[in-house]
Design a protein that fits this description.
The structure holds 2 protein chains of 2 kinds.
Chain A: H1 2-17, E1 34-37, H2 38-52, E2 56-60, H3 75-79, E3 84-86, H4 91-103, E4 107-111, H5 122-129, H6 132-135, E5 145-151, H7 166-170, E6 176-178, H8 183-195, E7 200-205, H9 208-211, E8 213-216, E9 229-232, E10 237-241, H10 245-258, E11 263-267, E12 270-272, H11 276-286, E13 288-293, H12 301-315, E14 323-328, H13 338-347
Parallel strand pairs in A: 2-3, 2-4, 4-5, 5-7, 6-7, 10-11, 10-13, 13-14
Antiparallel strand pairs in A: 1-8, 6-12, 9-11
Chain B: H1 2-9, H2 29-39, H3 46-54, H4 61-80, E1 88-91, E2 94-97, H5 136-161, H6 175-183, E3 190-192, H7 198-203, H8 208-216, H9 250-262, E4 269-274, H10 281-292, E5 297-303, E6 306-307, E7 310-311, H11 323-327, E8 331-336, H12 340-357, E9 361-366, H13 385-393, H14 397-407, H15 413-436, H16 455-470
Parallel strand pairs in B: 3-4, 4-5, 5-9, 8-9
Antiparallel strand pairs in B: 1-2, 6-7
Helix pairs in contact in B: 3-4, 5-6, 5-14, 5-15, 6-12, 8-15, 9-10
The chains are: A alpha/beta, B alpha/beta.
The structure holds thiamine diphosphate (TPP) and magnesium ion.
The site of magnesium ion (MG) has 7 residues of chain B, from strand 6.
Subcellular location (chain B): Mitochondrion matrix
GO molecular function (chain B): branched-chain 2-oxo acid dehydrogenase activity; metal ion binding
Pfam families (chain B): E1_dh
Chain lengths: 348, 481
Amino acid sequence: MASVLRRSQTVLNSLCRRQFSASPDGNLTTHAGKSMNLYSAINQALHIALETDPRAYVFGEDVGFGGVFRCTTGLADRYGKDRVFNTPLCEQGIVGFGIGLAAMGNRAIAEIQFADYIYPAFDQIVNEAAKFRYRSGNQFNCGGLTIRAPYGAVGHGGHYHSQSPEAFFCHVPGIKVVIPRSPYQAKGLLLSCIRDENPVVFFEPKWLYRLAVEEVPEDDFMLPLSQADVIREGSDITLVGWGAQLSVMEQACIDAEKEGISCELIDLRTLLPWDKETVEASVRKTGRLLISHEAPVTGGFGAEISASIVERCFLRQGEQNINVLHVVRPFSSLHNPIHILLLCLCID
Amino acid sequence: MAFQVRKATTKIIPHFRNGMGFFLGPLEMGFFNSYSTHLRNTSFSAHKIGTRILGSENMPTHLFSRRFESIKVGKQLNCVNDDRDDQVLEFPGGKVKFTSQLSFIPDREEERIPCFRVLDDNGRPCMYSNFTQVSKEVAMKIYHDMVTLQTMDTIFYEAQRQGRISFYVTSLGEEAINVASAAALSLDDLIVPQYREAGVLIWRGFTLKEFASQCFGNKYDYCKGRQMPVHYGSKRHNYFTVASTIASQIPHAVGAAYSMKMDKKDACAVTYFGDGGTSEGDFHAALNFAAVLEAPVIFICRNNGWAISTPISDQFRSDGVVVKGQAYGVRSIRVDGNDALAVYNAVRAAREMAIQEQRPILIEALTYRAGHHTTSDDSTRYRPAQEMEWWRVAMDPVSRFRKWIESNGWWSNEAEAELRSRLRKQLLEEIQLAERSEKPPVADAFTDVYDVPPSNLQEQEKWLRKTIKTHPQDYPSNFPL
Ligand SMILES: Cc1ncc(C[n+]2csc(CCOP(=O)(O)OP(=O)(O)O)c2C)c(N)n1
Ligand SMILES: [Mg+2]
């Protein structure tokens, strides 16, 4: 057991040292721009959002001084305390306030300090934000609301600083759920979320806040929502993931390649509403699907993907030979390294 | 184990406040209540407290270390005999005076917060009341709209009993809060309602046809037939759409008010909720946010004594709702909710302060839910018939206001009879029309979930249409395809 843990720790460490890539060939990036980490990319997106829209507001716990992850650094100084401000420590208040602000035609960008603490706001997100437009017959909407929350394992967070709660929100029609995998993606997707006409929950992979570095254009750009991204092309198996888990999966693809397995890796990016077509097309080509996420496997979003793909590619068309595997990363801090072994197992 | 320890200490712990640094948690709150009567205006000596604590040695030290410290300090102070009361602590929020008196803030004042009223039970203006007189025109509209609400409630309630609509909620007994508060506001003020404030919409000109269309969920319903009856909403009337969820609308009013503040609007947000709603976290979150963010918002609590079958004695032990404002730094008033003139005056003053001073105001209106909770409820099972009868007859806000306009010579029996029969006739017509109108099309089930229907919803719509085609006999014919 100890040696197993040691081995996976080595894999993890090598991952951490590796510069993060967003390009299909696995090399350091192709986007012309400044080299920056993920939190700086988020910070830049927020600067642009506030700069380009006088009706944009950024608020949450400790947001005024820059936020505990530094994502809001410099915003209050630049755009004033009326537009970038601390709120009381109360998640249901933050989201409820944000809904009212957004309903008046503003871009309300709310920060929940950790995704682990988003649950007090669950009712406001599920019963209010998601249904605001529908229940009013489109007379009112809170589409200007974006809720940012750092999610996922960092290696020492235990139960309350590591959770990946995305599946809870993917069950809720009326909101969008978006998770970026890298600095470039984070900036482009966040700007799209902020400017989207629907409430969005945007989970940021906090493991990568400082770790992931890539070239990010300094200008104002957006990446499309509900469009998956094929990170690397392959012919033997399709791998689907999102957020920080993709860095692990990318390494697995490289390892599998050495053993002669050609992997196609897809970043879902938007989990709700998700891009079935891209995943379906890939699985039709490879005939195999592996889904991996950090969140618990039972009732996880992987189950939705595997059910939909089996239904589309297998049941409807009567195709054979589709194998679906569903792998998770447990969120106990001690067991973090184990998921990599699971991955190796799957590829075997 | 931990539980036992806590239990052993409850004799003394409940009387400590959070800020003193050794409050244990919600487990003790029940005891707080039962002991509170003995505690009023009493202070304990350090010696007494010391003995009791020393009696509970098996407590986890991390909870009690500060406690022992504070007692030691207390004893030292006594020895030096230095009990000057003029020393202060400079603390964020202002100077805090030190005191050598070990005394607790009482759980409540001896006297309850008084209730502002203008008209007495017989509709006579109280002497020396400093109220703003309403014009005849405004008074007549207030009365007209209260009677409209009362009549609409009676007829829609009947329609539900006959099975013509699925559900209904009356505002019986709360007509004055509804209409008179609306009268004191401007149309630019945003209404963020619960479900028992249809009178605000009446005041703003929402027509009986519009009410009927929503309750029958026909194609003229602005909510496109998606919600239960009485979940009204109208952009044109600056009235957010009602949700069934209790209290979840309250923080929205704060966000909206903040936007109005940023836009330097000459208007405020006004949110309504019940006594039951004040137990929800959203109420507390909203009051606190509004105070901290200095938002021009008026919180109007209709304290009607009941939350379905739960009496306020099971809801809270504070002196009602009005006292909760001060703890959050929110200016507050208690008003007689069955006195239209009092409600009108309180809301008018609140609005002026909210907008001029950019601050939140809390209004607690005392009233009574004279009807059942909803058409799904039979309140005779949990409250005495005499109680209901007394509020309905002796305390009825509509007749009280009528006495006042009659005493002014503005109203007569003939006018009354004419108004009521005209409204009745009009309502019966609207009900028939609304009932016969076409339902919203099936496509409306899938639109407005997002601004544009995404592919998954388009796919689901296709499935539904396919199913309708294969099972046409199961599809209700009054919903256009
Ligand atoms: C969050 C939530 N919990 C429970 C309910 C069920 N419910 C509907 S109305 C109600 C009582 C509300 O009482 P109050 O706030 O005093 O308003 P009133 O009906 O007296 O106007 C309850 C418990 C609900 N709608 N929402
Ligand atoms: Mg009530």
